[in-house]
Amino acid sequence: MKNRLKVLRAEHDLTQADLAAKLDVSRQTIIAVEKGKFDPSLSLAFKVSRLFEQPIEEIFQDDA
Amino acid sequence: MGAKLDAVLAKGLPERDKKNANRVNLWALGWMFSLMGNAILTKVYDQGISALWFAILAAHIVCGVMLVLSYRRFLSELDEMERKVQLEALALAVGFSILVFSTGGILDSVGILGAPDGAVMVAVMSLTYMAGLIVGRIRLA
């Protein structure tokens, strides 16, 4: 799954640690999601969507 | 290299997860010490069933049950990626241990090797669990 997490984080001037704290996950999780190595759960995707005030499908896109 | 090492050491976990992990580690220590206490009592001091032995047995059961419960809580509240790593490491540890025991049983039946005992099982499970954690964390880093 592709995502725009890194771009959105940069636009909001957040570090990986800041974003991890806001989403209540580890920094390693943010790193893995940004690299596309780990697909977040639906609840985490909703948290990201609420935080950046964008629909989920504009942040996460299926590879297929 | 630094990022991989941070991943292996699971740096940056939320405070809640660190507290839960510390609780698991404390019960694991208690469980291990009670196991060692029993071995010292029965093998070094050659004591059989006594009040002290019962106390160690009770401590072992209490620590073991609390270890299981605290680990379950740790997993249920854990950061979702670390939970995936932990569950995959557990699956590897259980599967590999079963394989070691079943193979040991087959070799024992024809007298090539003695069947592995409980200490071997704990060691195999612990080592494969740790290996699974390291490999899983590096893979996702």
Written overview of the protein:
The complex is a heterodimer of chains A (64) and B (141). By secondary structure, chain A is mainly alpha-helical. Chain A has a single domain (2-53), classed as Orthogonal Bundle (434 Repressor (Amino-terminal Domain)). Chain A is built from five helices and two strands. Chain A has a two-stranded antiparallel ribbon. In chain A, helix 2 packs across helix 3. Chain B folds into two domains: 1-78; 79-141. In chain B, 83% of the residues lie in helices and 0% in strands. The radius of gyration of chain B is 18 Å and the shape is flat. The model of chain B has no long low-confidence stretch (mean pLDDT 90). The A-B interface holds A 17, 20-21, 24-29, 31-32, 37-38, 40-41, 44 and B 3, 6-7, 10-14, 17, 79-82, 84, 137, 139-141.
User: What's the shape of chain A?
Assistant: globular
What Rg of chain B do the Cα atoms give? 18 Å
Quaternary organisation of the protein chains: heterodimer
The strand line-up of the biggest sheet of chain A is 1-2
Give the count of helical stretches of chain A.
5
Identify low-pLDDT runs of chain A. none
Mean pLDDT, all residues of chain A = 94
Portion in beta strands of chain A = 5-15%
Rounded mean pLDDT of chain B is: 90
| Secondary structure: number of strands of chain B | 0
Biggest sheet character of chain A: 2 strands, antiparallel
Structural class of chain B: mainly alpha
Number of helices of chain B: 5
Helix content of chain A: 55-70%
Order of helices and strands of chain B: HHHHH
Biggest beta sheet summary of chain B: none
CATH class of chain A: Mainly Alpha
